[in-house]
Design a protein that fits this description.
alpha+beta; Cyclic Phosphodiesterase, Chain: A
Length: 182
């Protein structure tokens, strides 16, 4: 794994990507269930579930990152996006899973622990598995009924880099790590 090309990245993060069929359904649902003029919709390519953040890592931390993550052995699992919410403090509207499968929660804990061990502190807030749909949502947003359900099979997680270039966020897939078959 070579990080030389993206060493200038502001941040990295580990996330579960969603199948194209699920992201298509999320985009369609968002367009019909949420007001068009409320908030900024995230692009389809940015609909993923972040498991751990790696904020402003230095070169030494990046060199330790791959071996720490690659050595992880965690089982594949399935979760269902069947919940929605709004966080007024951050202005985010999201979909998530309730209840979250034990394997998903354990994967997030393991990844956050390994990232913290290489010197990248993690949030003290509890992990809430979710996919952000809208940012900068006003507090007047009315959430739609939770009459949806999308099943997502997870057999890998991914490492992304994120940086700003010409006032745009550029997100790049850096690596994919397999989960163990059940």
């Amino acid at each position: 794994m070579v990080f030389a090309k993206t060493i200038q990245a502001d941040h990295y993060f580990l996330a579960l990507t969603l199948p194209d069929s699920v992201t298509e359904q999320l985009v369609t649902w968002r367009a019909t269930a949420l007001p068009a003029d409320e908030g900024i919709p995230l692009p389809k390519a940015q609909l993923y579930m972040v498991l751990a953040w790696i904020n402003s890592p230095n070169a030494a931390q990046l060199s330790q990152l791959h071996p720490a993550i690659a050595a992880l052995r965690s089982p594949a699992f399935t979760f269902t996006l069947n919940d929605a919410g709004y966080w007024p403090r951050s202005g985010q509207c999201w979909v998530g899973c309730r209840p979250a499968p034990r394997e998903l929660l354990q994967l997030a804990v393991l990844l956050r622990s390994r990232v913290a061990r290489i010197g990248c502190p993690q949030s003290s807030l509890p992990f809430h598995p979710h996919v952000t749909l809208l940012r900068q949502v006003p507090s007047s947003l009315t959430l739609p009924k939770r009459n949806f359900s999308w099943s997502v099979a997870c057999n890998h997680f991914s490492l992304f880099s994120s940086r700003y270039q010409r006032s745009r966020r550029i997100i790049t897939l850096e690596n994919t790590y397999p989960l163990s078959p059940n």
